[in-house]
């Protein structure tokens, strides 16, 4: 990207600073704790979010900040940062290098900046609305593969209905719909992979804005397609979506609707 906005520059600086903290703790005997909703948190999560928050709010004191660990800090309504210091904490604390720092800036419910950084693989994804998507400073685009060779990830939510739908999609997608299904346990990276062409699609089943906001912008700027589960236009902050390279999007929509209807009929019995 020839010219980056101050917002993007600051987001990249914050992501890299957080990455240094996370890398320091990776594959160590770090204390594992669990929050009330049974999601894990570590000292690395808290320290990474603290440095991100410090860097961002020093640069933009009138911006609001929504972090997974510290919640909402309201300073203004126009700009809100959505931050996950470690998306994929469970992977991180078990020594599995599939996790990322995820930062997105939202203005009036439009995602304008997104940064995703995996410090272990030295992967830096970033995008700015209208300026394309980039991976380690090289512009990226979605895959051109059709469904016959497609790899699709499914990102389950935390509520029981989404877990049931995840199970149905995970096993039925492979039955004549696509080639391969994955769940990496890190939504931001899964969306980044769609943007880079490593995956052909990702199906979101109900997560927090800080999990998917940066990745959604990457996919959009890389030429991908994003809709609601029923195929109608997706808008932020809706947390159910299908993001794909667009080549067999209608087929994905049809299968998601089919499995939703199947579960609905089962509930009636």
Description:
This protein has 269 residues and is α+β, with helices and mostly antiparallel strands. The chain folds into 2 domains: 6-140, Fructose-1,6-Bisphosphatase, Chain A, domain 1 (2-Layer Sandwich), CATH 3.30.540.10; 147-268, 3-Layer(aba) Sandwich (D-Maltodextrin-Binding Protein, domain 2), CATH 3.40.190. The protein has 7 helices and 15 strands. The chain has helices spanning 6-25, 43-59, 89-93, 160-172, 187-196, 209-221, 249-268; strands at 33-34, 40-41, 64-67, 71-73, 79-87, 100-107, 110-118, 123-128, 133-135, 138-140, 151-156, 180-182, 201-205, 225-227, 240-244. The strands form 3 sheets. Strands 4-3-5-6-7-8-9-10 form an 8-stranded mixed beta sheet, sandwiched between helices. Helix 5 (187-196) runs parallel beside helix 6. It is globular, with a radius of gyration of 18 Å. It starts with 5 loop residues before the first helix and ends with a helix. The relative contact order is 0.13. The mean pLDDT is 94.
Summarize the structure.
This protein has 269 residues and is of the alpha+beta class.
Helix-strand category: alpha+beta
Which CATH first-tier class of the largest domain would you pick?
Answer: Alpha Beta
Helices and strands, in order, run as HEEHEEEHEEEEEEHEHEHEEH
Poorly predicted runs of 5 or more residues: none
Layout of SSEs?
Layout: H1 6-25, E1 33-34, E2 40-41, H2 43-59, E3 64-67, E4 71-73, E5 79-87, H3 89-93, E6 100-107, E7 110-118, E8 123-128, E9 133-135, E10 138-140, E11 151-156, H4 160-172, E12 180-182, H5 187-196, E13 201-205, H6 209-221, E14 225-227, E15 240-244, H7 249-268
Parallel strand pairs: 3-5, 11-12, 11-13
Antiparallel strand pairs: 1-2, 3-4, 5-6, 6-7, 7-8, 8-9, 9-10, 13-15, 14-15
Helix pairs in contact: 1-2, 4-7, 5-6
């Amino acid at each position: 990207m020839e010219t980056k906005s101050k917002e993007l520059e600051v987001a990249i600086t914050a992501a890299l600073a957080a990455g240094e903290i996370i890398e320091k703790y990776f594959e160590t005997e770090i204390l594992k704790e669990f929050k009330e909703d049974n999601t894990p948190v570590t000292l690395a999560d808290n320290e990474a979010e603290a440095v991100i928050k410090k860097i961002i709010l020093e640069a933009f004191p009138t911006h609001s900040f929504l972090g997974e660990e510290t919640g909402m800090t309201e300073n203004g309504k126009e700009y809100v940062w959505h931050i996950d210091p470690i998306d994929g904490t469970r992977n991180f604390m078990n020594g599995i290098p599939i996790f990322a720092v995820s930062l997105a800036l939202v203005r009036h419910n439009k995602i304008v900046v997104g940064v995703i950084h995996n410090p272990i693989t030295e992967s830096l994804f970033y995008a700015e609305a209208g300026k394309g998507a980039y991976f380690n400073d090289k512009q990226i685009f979605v895959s051109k593969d059709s469904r016959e060779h497609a790899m699709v990830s499914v990102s389950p939510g935390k509520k029981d209905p989404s877990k049931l739908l995840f199970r149905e999609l995970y096993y039925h997608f492979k039955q004549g719909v696509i080639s391969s299904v994955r769940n990496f346990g890190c939504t931001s990276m899964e969306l980044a992979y769609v943007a880079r062409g490593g995956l052909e699609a990702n199906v979101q089943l109900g997560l927090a804005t800080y999990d998917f906001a940066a990745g959604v912008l990457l996919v959009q700027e890389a030429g991908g397609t994003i809709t609601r589960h029923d195929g109608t236009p997706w808008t932020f902050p809706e947390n159910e979506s299908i993001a794909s390279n667009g080549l067999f999007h209608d087929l994905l929509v049809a299968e998601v609707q089919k499995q939703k209807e199947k579960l609905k009929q089962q509930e009636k019995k």
